[in-house]
Amino acid sequence: MYRASLKERLHDKDRQKFFVAHLAGKMIGLAVAFYAIITVGPWLVGTVAHAASLPKADEMQDQLTDTVNGLNTAWTLIAAFLVFFMQAGFMMLEAGFARTREVVNILQECIVDTCLCALLFWAFGFAFMFGNGNKWIGHEFFFLNGAPNAYGSTGVAFMAFFLFQFAFADTCSTITSGAMVGRTGFKGDLLYSLGVSGFIYPILGHWVWGPGGFLNTINGGTTIFRDFAGSTVVHTMGGMVALAGAIVLGPRLGRKFKRDGGGLPPGHDLTVAAIGGVILWFGWYGFNPGSTLSAMDATGIGRVATNTTLAAAAGGLIAMAIVYPRVKKWDMGITINGFLGGLVAITAPCYWVNATGAIIIGLIGGIVVVYGIDLIEHLRIDDPIGAVAVHGFCGIWGTWSIGLFATGQWNDVKGLFWGGGVKQLWIQVWGNLLVGGVAFGVGLALMYAVKATGTLRVSEEGELEGIDIHEHGSPAYHPEAAYMGKGF
């Protein structure tokens, strides 16, 4: 009996048609099955698993609030990892904008601040911020004791929620260090970081995000202060403490400001700074979309991620365009800070605005960065990284923008331009000014207290020698390349 060879069977038209049809059917079947699994599966599994454990109506709420949703937890952990990776971005951004003689100091500060923040947030920071208490401070979950399976009604495993919020706390402390580069003693850095990560950030953060927080319960909880992902809680607060630190420290030795015929010294490595800035942009996809705390909110995650992208793009382009006529150059540094300003600005309103609103918010954020840096320079405040303008000023603008551009399409948050009147705008303005003002005032007190210990600023000899050598014993680069007698 004749059997066709493999080659003949492969070239047989009928067999080819049968194979294509058979494969297409299999693929369609797999697609349908996969769709059923991801849409019906979680509901079916949850229904079967919990049906027997909910026999009484009066036990329903307690069991629901203690139930861990695996998808929400996984999504929150992924977002936490992205936000944590922003530390690499901050390290590279600050190091690239700084001078070679202070790079090791920046890297060491960021690493040790992260270690310190983790332990402080575990011991009492998380309790102050997210524990049940009163309107001003929480007093539950010290050392994470008494933690339930899930945090509140989020469905997110408690420890995953803790990790996500720790990454936010760490970001606030890192923002503060950006304005204090090049002249802060390492002991002083440890002391003020203890105050920021352990007390200022979690206590003021409780007002906005904590259960029963002051700004979270005003007007009976109807029209309340809104900050989706932290333009106020993280960025305004960090920027204002950074401003306090820069004022108390004073400028670096030899720093000559623009009004005195000088200007901001250029960064030593814009390649590193640019990569660091883009890493921060990437990490923001954990910062903003991750704040949904729900993998089920697919439309919300997509909207937030898109708004984040558009605002950053608009901020970077407008900042570059504004500066070009001044120097007739396409400036890299201001472009980086411009898109970071757009990211900071969109952080608070990202869930409640549409794409057009996000672009406008980002554009204005980029403008705020340029003129904010000009203002800080005019006031003779030495901010080597631009932290005050990017985080502080754009954080203020982003928080206020909710009261202007929130559309009311996704909940009851509606801004002035969408027929909501000035009520939400007014709450956004005074709530943000309250948190920012208290952060600045307490930050000043903290910095002066650290200064009184004699540890806030490195000695004049140490600064001239180079803080890397003086404080850490080694330069970031080969000595012959790093120190050429030019002050870099």
Description of the structure:
The protein has 488 residues and is mostly helical. The chain folds into two domains: 39 residues; 400 residues, Ammonium transporter fold. 66% of the residues lie in helices and 0% in strands. Helix 10 packs antiparallel against helix 11, helix 11 crosses helix 12 and helix 11 crosses helix 13. The longest helix is centred in the first third of the chain and has 39 residues. It is globular. 49% of the residues are buried.
The CATH architecture of the largest domain comes to: Orthogonal Bundle
- End-to-end distance, in Å? 87 Å
CATH superfamily of the largest domain: Ammonium transporter AmtB like domains
Kindly state the number of beta strands: 0
Low-pLDDT segments: 30-63, 482-488
List keywords for this structure.
single chain, 488 residues, Ammonium transporter fold, globular, disordered C terminus
Describe the secondary structure blueprint for this structure.
Elements: H1 6-11, H2 13-51, H3 60-65, H4 70-97, H5 103-130, H6 158-178, H7 186-209, H8 231-249, H9 270-287, H10 298-327, H11 332-347, H12 355-378, H13 387-405, H14 423-452, H15 460-465, H16 467-472, H17 479-482
Helix pairs in contact: 4-5, 4-6, 4-9, 5-6, 5-7, 6-7, 6-8, 7-8, 7-14, 8-13, 8-14, 9-11, 10-11, 10-12, 11-12, 11-13, 12-13, 13-14
